[in-house]
Amino acid sequence: MRRWFVILVPYLWLLVFFLIPFFIVFKISLSDIATAIPPYTPTFSITDIGGFFSQLDFENYTFIFQDSLYIGAYFSALKIAFFSTILTLLIAYPIAYGMARAPREWQPTLVMLVILPFWTSFLIRVYAWIGILKKEGLLNLFLMNLGLISEPLTIMNTNTAVYIGIVYSYLPFMILPLYASLEKINPALLEAAADLGSPPWKSFWQVTFPLSIPGVLAGCFLVFIPATGEFVIPDLLGGSETLMIGKTLWNEFFNNRDWPVSSAVAVVLLLVLVVPIVLFQRNQEKQREAGR
Amino acid sequence: MSGATVQSATPAQPKSPLRTAAPQSGFAPWKDPSKAPIVRFENVVKRFGDFVAVKDCTLDIYEREFFALLGPSGCGKTTLLRMLAGFEKPTSGRILVAGQDITELAPYERPVNMMFQSYALFPHMTVEQNIGFGLRQDGMPKDQIATRVDEVMALLELGRFGKRKPHQLSGGQQQRVALARAIAKKPRIVLLDEPLGALDKRLRQTAQFELMGIQERTGTTFIIVTHDQEEAMTVSSRIAVMDHGEFVQIATPGDIYEAPNSRYVANFIGDVNLFEGKVVSISGGFAEIDWGPGLARFKSVAPEGCTGDQQVWLALRPEKIHIDLDKPTDTSNTIPGKVVDVGYLGSISHYHVELANGQRVKALRTNSSRTVDRPISWEDKVWLQWPAETGIVLTR
After folding, report:
1. Residues B292, B295, B301, CA angle at the centre, nearest 5°?
2. Cβ atoms within 10 A of the Cβ of B276, count?
3. Which residues of chain A fall below pLDDT 50?
4. What whole-number distance in Å separates Cα of residue B65 and Cα of residue B70?
5. Among B346, B379, B347, B382, which residue's Cα sits nearest to residue B363?
6. pLDDT attached to residue B309
7. Sheet of B100-101: strands edge to edge?
8. Is A195 an 8 Å CB contact of chain B?
9. The dihedral formed by the CA atoms of A38, A39, A40 and A42, expressed in degrees to the nearest 10
10. What's the pLDDT at A242?
11. How far is A202 from chain B, CA to nearest CA, in Å?
């Protein structure tokens, strides 16, 4: 009885807060736009179940796939998420490596410092970047005072700003799993590699990096998946050229008030992300097996 | 004190037949002045902050030796080994391999390979890849690597496990892979850091003989670090007993056991009874030792440089003491006592005998016949006796 309860709680949670909302969104995506409250039709009625189902169709989906705007937004989002993930990895790896190699007694403090930004609201931190990146912002003032540039750089409202925002915001999600896997590596392995004739840089590629791959994959998924659906960063830092599916979804929902199409966009986004999520879980599974 | 002086201080005792009880092989390059050592530690000192891990150690190790560094944890034996591997730099002094100064060489440039206490097998590589790792670093052609890996795997009976990952192997198999990896490059010197420490007792004994077999067949110099005196006695050609970063004695297992140079060594290797006393007189190479008022004096072979009135300790191995219910006819070195404890182990029996002054003495007897008229038992009055040649007089 108690065992059932323990199992039931998480499933109930998923049912109430994921599955039911998903079905509501899915149902709306099959509806048509209407000038009403709520702004779609049909609405569910017990009396006419047959008529209700007959009005549902996949029109919105065919619309999304025929309009290059949406397809472009999906690909652009995947592209930005992909390159941000790689950039984040390149920046996070040396940081995590340094942390794992730091004296034992420093390490908890270093982990704290990585987590520290979370104590400030995500939104406020993204806003703060506006102050740094804008034309008369801190970065331009700094570079001009140093005499490195004479004209202020245009970073704000470009894709560059979006990349900076994503890399900055998701860096801790990359550092932490990397640090966890690097810190686990037995230092004797590197001594063994050196003893067998491998200089340090070769040992890194032969021992350290292969053993950190689970952390690399975990970090990449943790960055790539939320970055694909990111809305706040492209909205605040990006410009008109920045096309991301999260932003498109927002516009569709709040500006166009086209709930059915935006719901269809959301459902497709979810399907797109299911692939990396399944891969991520498979990786976790493998790691657990290897970690025996 | 440096190791070299310890070596020469080892008492040479050729006259007593008991001294040669340990098996002697003809292999003794350390006695041959024409032989050059393959490893030489020259006044090596290692400090970690205020802590002196190794104090001015000088040591020669010869080709094909199986040399053991023996001592309790923290005595500096592992530090010495790690300095030879290149993981630690000596604070001062030099380390030479085959006459070449390697003190400044990085670990990956040294002609030594190490077997780690934790084995340190690469978890993401198969057994074959682990064993071939060192060969790949040298850029050996693939087919030659495969041949050599097969050869080493056959030597260590690992043939069936080539494609497995380390975590799929038992402890004993992992130990053999670690050894295979250390010998794969045919290094001139193989270092073993507590190689059998993780194995259970039974497996450890087989592994010790395996180690000796591999060492003999490959003809390589092995240097082993261990805290297990039995292991050191079994496998090695010579043992360096260490304490607090210094060599206390460097000698063959037989000499270490039969002719320890100090109470520390006598206590560390095997069981020993120690009697504290004073040398009263020396005549004909024998010293008379007074070890308490009203107690019969002991007679024992006098060590070199022993003078009268010197404080000494008489060390006696339990198996060298005869224990008997009747007073022996030879009355030298004979003391009465009372049995307080008996340990029957089948092949042998241990006796704890309390002397008149309250000191307890351990004695051993082999149970060579199945029946005895009257076995020695608790509370029995017994006589302990030993020949003057079996006791060792220690001055420190």
Report:
1. 80
2. 14
3. 292
4. 15
5. B382
6. 74
7. B51-61, B39-48, B92-97, B100-101
8. yes
9. 40
10. 82
11. 9
Interchain pair B185, A211: CB under 8 A: no
Please report, for chain A, the start and end positions of each structural domain, with discontinuous segments joined by +.
Answer: 67-290
Q: Which residues of B touch A189 (CB under 8 A)?
A: 120, 122-123
Instruction: Check B116 against A191: CB less than 8 A apart.
Output: yes
What pLDDT digit, counting tens, does each position of A89-132 carry?
999 999 999 999 999 999 999 999 999 998 999 999 999 999 99
Instruction: Tell me what pLDDT residue A161 has.
Output: 93
In whole angstroms, how far apart are CA A208 and each of B27, B106, B373?
Answer: 44, 19, 71
Residue B153: per-residue pLDDT:
92
Contact B120 A191 (CB under 8 A): yes
Task: Name the one residue in this structure whose structure tokens are 């006419």.
Answer: A48
Cα nearest neighbour of A199 on chain B: B108
Q: In this structure, are residues B126 and B162 in contact, taking their beta carbons and an 8 Å threshold? A: yes
What's the rounded Cα separation, in Å, for the pair A228 and A79? 8
Q: Which residues share a beta bridge with B392? A: B315
As a residue count, chain A comes to 292
- Which B-chain residues 163-182 have CB contacts (< 8 A) with chain A? 167, 181
Interchain pair B86, A194: CB under 8 A: yes
CATH for A67-290, among 1.10.3720.10, 2.60.120.260, 2.60.40.1080, 3.30.70.1150? 1.10.3720.10
Which residue shows structure tokens 């295979």?
B180
Q: Is B353 within 8 Å of B378 (Cβ atoms)? A: no
B3-111+188-267 is classed in which CATH architecture?
Answer: 3-Layer(aba) Sandwich (3.40)
Distance CA B241, CA B253 (A): 10
What's the predicted TM-score (pTM) here? 0.80
Q: How far, in Å, CA of B254 to CA of B10, rounded?
A: 12
Mutation to test the A interface, candidates B82, B88, B89, B116, most A Cβ within 10 Å? B116
Answer for the pair A158, A238: CB distance below 8 angstroms, yes or no. yes
Q: Which residues of chain B have pLDDT under 50?
A: 1-20
Helices and strands counted in chain A (H then E): 15, 2
C-alpha neighbours within 13 Å on the C-beta side of residue A247: 21
User: What CATH topology corresponds to B271-394?
Assistant: OB fold (Dihydrolipoamide Acetyltransferase, E2P) (2.40.50)
Residue A289 near chain B (CB below 8 Å): no
For chain B, the domains span 3-111+188-267, 271-394
Contact B316, B325 (CB under 8 A): no
- Residue B166: closest CA among chain A residues belongs to which residue? A290
Q: What pLDDT sits at residue B294?
A: 67
Q: What's residue B10's pLDDT?
A: 42
Contact yes or no for A224/A174 (Cβ under 8 A): no
What local confidence, expressed as pLDDT, does residue B23 receive?
Answer: 59
Q: Does A187 touch chain B (CB under 8 A)?
A: no
A241 touches chain B (CB under 8 A): no
- Amino acid present at A282: R
Would the CB atoms of B124 and A211 count as touching at under 8 Å?
yes
